[in-house]
Specification:
The chain has 300 residues and is of the alpha/beta class. It has a single domain, classed as TIM Barrel (Alpha-Beta Barrel), CATH 3.20.20.220. The chain is 50% helix and 14% strand. It contains twelve helices and eight strands. The chain has an eight-stranded parallel β-barrel, surrounded by six helices. Helix 4 crosses helix 5. The N and C termini lie far apart (40 Å). 36% of the residues are buried.
Length: 300
């Protein structure tokens, strides 16, 4: 029987159907900087909470104002939704005593999950006093936190080599990290090769792939350049001529993300972390298509 586009779609749909919701999801948000953005954030949180994520995380930058917003949002998420809420915590902009105080405050308020990161260095910042592995050790000394750390399938931009980057990840895991969440990527093979290298290096925690559904290619290219992520030519070409066509860009972004999850699921991956950019619609549609059902759907 000859190949046809229809048969390809049938095969793709069957592969998606075979997942039958047998994946776990988590979502990342960032603190809003205006009342309108705060409204969008909470709308997205309440929309995506129905998909029963394993946890949600909230980022923050290297300044006390944004850090305070993250702390407040994390506590509100826990109180208003009951979700497991994991704040990002970086160590380049706080002393060890400040970090211990933050950790104790989180623990006192029932926050048991933390994403431990070094954080972005300020311009001409010099060598930091602490790294992510030091933060993991500090948190472990304070309480029995569930700690996620970052991993880089295409190598951290500041790493001396891929091997040095892998060794650093192993140090974080050996210090007590519960899992690693990857930087976003678009080449599935880069993740699979990285996962194999992690296994060979004795890294025995789950390597959760970070998924970034692309709607704005210009924005994605800025993110990719800053994080040493390669954008394949075939992917960039899919967005050509769509600058003024939001709906088509959303469809392309959803299709690619669904295909990535489908392929990775066939390779044994069960957990996926979505970078939502505080927008629920696309992430919700992707998860729904993949069989991750909202509470109302399950009840019905």
């Amino acid at each position: 029987m000859g190949y046809s586009y229809a048969s390809h779609l049938d095969a793709l749909n069957q592969n998606i159907a075979d997942l039958n919701g047998a994946i776990n999801v988590s979502f990342e948000f960032f603190p809003p900087s205006s009342p309108a953005m705060e409204e969008t954030l909470w709308s997205s949180i309440h929309r995506l909470k129905t998909l029963k994520p394993k946890f949600v995380s909230v980022t923050y930058g290297a300044n006390s104002g944004e850090r305070d917003r993250t702390h407040s949002i994390i506590k509100d998420i826990k109180e208003q939704t009951g979700l497991l809420a994991a704040p990002h915590l970086t160590c380049i902009d706080a002393t060890r005593d400040e970090l211990r105080s933050i950790a104790r405050d989180y623990w006192k308020n029932g926050i048991r999950n933390i994403v431990a990161l070094r954080g972005d260095l300020p311009p001409q910042g010099g060598k930091p006093d602490m790294y992510a592995v030091d933060l993991v050790e500090l948190l472990r000394a304070e309480a029995d936190f569930d700690i996620s750390v970052a991993a880089y399938p295409e190598v951290h931009p500041e790493a001396k080599s891929a091997q040095a980057d892998l060794i650093n990840l192993k140090r974080k895991v050996d210090a007590g990290a519960s899992r690693a969440i990857t930087q976003f990527f678009f080449d599935v093979e880069s993740y699979l090769r990285f996962r194999d290298r992690c296994v060979a290096a004795g890294i025995d925690v789950e390597i959760v792939p970070g998924i970034l559904p692309v709607v704005n290619m210009k924005q994605a290219k800025r993110f990719a350049q800053a994080n040493n992520v390669k954008i394949p030519n075939w992917l960039e070409k899919q967005y050509q001529g769509l600058d003024d066509d939001l709906l088509s860009r959303q469809m392309v972004g959803a299709s690619n993300a669904i295909d990535m999850v489908r392929v990775l699921s066939r390779e044994g991956v069960k957990d996926f972390h979505f970078y939502t950019l505080n927008r629920a619609e696309l992430t919700y549609a992707i998860c729904h298509t993949l069989g991750v059902r909202a509470e109302a759907d399950v009840i019905a």
